Amino acid sequence: MDKGYEKERFESISIKASVVKKFRRFSRQLSKSQSMTLLLMIEFFEDNGISPTEAMGPKMQTLEKLIKKRINGVIAILKDIEKSQTKPTVAMMETLFKEAEPKKKPLILAKKNVVKQNEIDFKENQKSDNEI
What we know:
By secondary structure, the protein is mainly alpha-helical.
């Protein structure tokens, strides 16, 4: 029995025999009763605002075009944001970091002084050895 419709009585409608065979086959494929299958079909058409006499092709194509336009619009917005906001901000940040880098002090100068002092000491020692 159909849930929620147990207490309702049955009515009859006149349908051509070939249509009834097709409908019963379709109901079995859905694993629903004939009443529930018909109800599902009617609700589908009402919910989607379509008529069984209308073709679905143009409506689906129109919907696809609309979605593509929206996606292209989003892409255009993202590209504009990248050009006007992201790239200039990144460039400013890079210049700030380049200017903020500490100047490297050459440590080699200190070593040169040490080496020169040792040479001077060595020369003084040589002079004193010669004098003796």
